[in-house]
């Protein structure tokens, strides 16, 4: 390179540095999170415009699109781990994240590098500004995150397949910009009713919105009214629907604190599988992942040898889901934050653990179905510690206590002790001090609380937690 070329290169680099809106990873993340006030605005116009401006990188990728009320993250974890064991390269896009913003964009089980996120944010910022100045309004935080994920997979890492979790609902969720090779719907429950609707049918219609013409669908939805909507939508789209208890089934065989085994029976073969994730609901999630993998194997040549398949299922892990993070005293974390999650948790705890007293710490957001959550949890709890997540939409601990008192007589043990401690760190110390060797301490509720408690107990740096 001659002197003129060197000078020219230096000038180009200098201009690029000046042109780049963000100089550091922290600045880029602060910008993306700064879009949170624009809220959750279901609709596809802004993400469609972003994809047009980027030259449609999403069209170069194969997606497994996963929707549902609960179990999406765990199902994504099973799919990712098995495909990785099988030798495929895998992108995984999930939310919310437990520890760090980069968690939501993974390639082969590793977070996106901070410098790559910075580069992609710098590419997106002027496009976001352009759309914000148009009649469409500013793209939201989740829209920008989704566009960043597509750029990362479509232009940087090029995985064989992307495991792609919806944010909210399905039909108008921005992740629905993609055309997947298979659609997966875990279950339907009463969550985000302010956005998705007040009935199982309304919520099912939103989730079923990820079903595309000719793209097979796999689901563990069981409510008759929701099943009917899935069947109608699949028929309308002229595609195959693989439904639990119809085309495939599973049965939990046994389990303990170390893991569990279940029998899977499908249209192509039967198999006994072992998983380390706890709770009967994880057998449902694993069976759903297995049926998804069976369809991919049968029709799309995603071949995973049995040995790698078994290893993948056994090694799959998802933080904050019946995760024992401390043994003295025993503390278990579970991000059950809606009635269906609470029902699974209440059923799983006595199935898995032996304990004398159950001490339960929880904090919630203000927009949840608290009574229908409490009806599952209160009957099994001896001491209830009510606290507040460090998050803007938190439910005040005293207000939460008022809700508990209203339903206490209906659901709780007459010996239930209630403690109100708004500071979650103090509440955690209270939980630890009250949980003796024969007892079990559980922290549950919103994942924003789980994220902070997990970082604290495992000695991690403060979590960046967020949606």
Automatic annotation (TrEMBL):
<feature type="domain" description="Mur ligase C-terminal">
    <location>
        <begin position="320"/>
        <end position="446"/>
    </location>
</feature>
<dbReference type="InterPro" id="IPR013221">
    <property type="entry name" value="Mur_ligase_cen"/>
</dbReference>
<dbReference type="GO" id="GO:0008841">
    <property type="term" value="F:dihydrofolate synthase activity"/>
</dbReference>
<dbReference type="GO" id="GO:0005524">
    <property type="term" value="F:ATP binding"/>
</dbReference>
<dbReference type="Pfam" id="PF08245">
    <property type="entry name" value="Mur_ligase_M"/>
</dbReference>
<dbReference type="Pfam" id="PF02875">
    <property type="entry name" value="Mur_ligase_C"/>
</dbReference>
<protein>
    <recommendedName>
        <fullName>tetrahydrofolate synthase</fullName>
        <ecNumber>6.3.2.17</ecNumber>
    </recommendedName>
</protein>
<dbReference type="InterPro" id="IPR036565">
    <property type="entry name" value="Mur-like_cat_sf"/>
</dbReference>
<dbReference type="InterPro" id="IPR001645">
    <property type="entry name" value="Folylpolyglutamate_synth"/>
</dbReference>
<dbReference type="InterPro" id="IPR036615">
    <property type="entry name" value="Mur_ligase_C_dom_sf"/>
</dbReference>
<keyword id="KW-0460">Magnesium</keyword>
<keyword id="KW-0436">Ligase</keyword>
<dbReference type="GO" id="GO:0005737">
    <property type="term" value="C:cytoplasm"/>
</dbReference>
<dbReference type="GO" id="GO:0004326">
    <property type="term" value="F:tetrahydrofolylpolyglutamate synthase activity"/>
</dbReference>
<comment type="similarity">
    <text>Belongs to the folylpolyglutamate synthase family.</text>
</comment>
<dbReference type="InterPro" id="IPR004101">
    <property type="entry name" value="Mur_ligase_C"/>
</dbReference>
<keyword id="KW-0479">Metal-binding</keyword>
<feature type="domain" description="Mur ligase central">
    <location>
        <begin position="162"/>
        <end position="292"/>
    </location>
</feature>
<dbReference type="GO" id="GO:0046872">
    <property type="term" value="F:metal ion binding"/>
</dbReference>
<keyword id="KW-0067">ATP-binding</keyword>
<dbReference type="InterPro" id="IPR018109">
    <property type="entry name" value="Folylpolyglutamate_synth_CS"/>
</dbReference>
<keyword id="KW-0547">Nucleotide-binding</keyword>
